[in-house]
């Protein structure tokens, strides 16, 4: 390897080392940076989207964009995607705020984790039943699977005719590389305490016993999904199971099947909410870009290797075990 290439590699290594140390230091120093940015201590600010004619209360729009999964906060190359814990906090805050007359969830997601979807669902139920909030859902371009799961308990669901929704069901996936390993002469040795300890392992074929166990888990989560829709949409179980075979629907098809209440966009949803609760200010919670995130974004621009480094971090940090998901797989 040439001297110039060695020097370049050393320079890159030094920059990465300094960047990691710098990010760790700023994260520790400014872990409570939001308190400097917002006297309320929240991770977001409130912005008026549309001024109302009546005073005293407000309508809050909460945006859910991206896959519903709890990836945690922070990280050297954190992006501005969906942040699960913050979204849960936003729902809870709006629910407990006596000046909030109604909440609109603007949903644009293919779905996500079963656990995360259930956590959002519980927060929405609490806002409705314990805090008496009127809750509407405005579906964006996609509100499929887990996106519909969290929408089901809303007082009103509004979708564009072109929205992709439905995909009611559960999925769990794994890959099998045993044949590939065999082709390359790779032998995998597994020592386990019981026959099912390595269930869904990528290094062996799935047995009938494996499949039966996993199918029972899938069926349990699917039954829960059906129950959520039965209760939220006031439909019979037979009706729900007939249309809940995993297929997607357009907003118009979902309307015809009683999965949504109205066809329209976010502005239409706001108008409907105002006609019910009052013509109040419409506000939106905007997430802060904290100091650690700001420096991370600056580092991304400096390195101009955002996609490669972010992908590497995601691969290294992602838990590889198969998980249950309410998600639409294209």
Automatic annotation (TrEMBL):
Residue ranges constituting the Peptidase S49 domain according to the UniProt record? 128-277
Q: Name one GO biological process term.
A: proteolysis
Can the keyword Hydrolase be found in this entry's annotation?
Answer: yes
Which key words are in the record? Hydrolase, Protease, Serine protease
Entries under SUPFAM superfamilies matching the protein: ClpP/crotonase
Which PANTHER family does the entry mention? PEPTIDASE S49 (PTHR42987), SIGNAL PEPTIDE PEPTIDASE SPPA-RELATED (PTHR42987:SF7)
Q: Please report which protein family the annotation says this sequence is part of.
A: Belongs to the peptidase S49 family.
State the name under which the record lists this protein.
Answer: Protease IV
């Amino acid at each position: 390897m040439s001297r110039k290439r060695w020097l370049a590699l050393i320079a890159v290594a030094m920059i990465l080392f300094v960047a990691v140390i710098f990010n760790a230091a700023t994260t520790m120093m400014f872990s409570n940076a939001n308190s400097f940015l917002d006297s309320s201590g929240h991770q977001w600010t409130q912005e008026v989207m549309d001024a109302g004619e009546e005073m005293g209360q407000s309508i809050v729009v909460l945006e859910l964009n991206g896959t519903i999964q709890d990836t945690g906060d922070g990280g050297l190359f954190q992006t501005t995607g969906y942040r699960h814990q913050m979204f849960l906090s936003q729902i809870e805050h709006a629910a407990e705020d006596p000046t909030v007359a109604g909440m609109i969830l603007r949903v644009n997601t293919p779905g996500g984790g079963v656990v995360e979807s259930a956590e959002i669902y519980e927060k929405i139920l609490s806002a409705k039943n314990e805090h008496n909030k009127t809750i509407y859902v405005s579906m964006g371009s996609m509100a499929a699977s887990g996106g519909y799961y969290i929408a089901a308990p809303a007082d009103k669901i509004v979708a564009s005719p072109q929205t992709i929704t439905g995909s009611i069901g559960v999925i769990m996936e794994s890959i099998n590389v045993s044949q590939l390993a065999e082709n390359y002469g790779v032998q995998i040795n597994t020592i386990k305490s019981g026959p099912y300890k390595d269930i869904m392992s990528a290094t062996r074929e799935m047995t009938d016993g494996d499949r039966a166990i996993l199918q029972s888990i899938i069926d349990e989560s699917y039954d829960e999904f059906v129950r959520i829709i039965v209760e939220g949409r006031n439909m019979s179980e037979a009706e729900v199971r007939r249309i809940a075979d995993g297929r997607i629907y357009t907003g118009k098809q979902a309307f015809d099947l009683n999965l949504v209440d109205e066809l329209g966009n976010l502005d239409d949803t706001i108008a409907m909410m105002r006609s019910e609760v009052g013509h109040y200010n419409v506000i939106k919670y905007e997430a802060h870009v904290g100091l650690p995130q700001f420096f991370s974004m600056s580092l991304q621009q400096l390195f101009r290797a955002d996609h490669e480094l972010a992908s590497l971090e995601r691969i290294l940090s992602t838990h590889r075990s198969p998980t249950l998901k309410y998600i639409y797989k294209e």
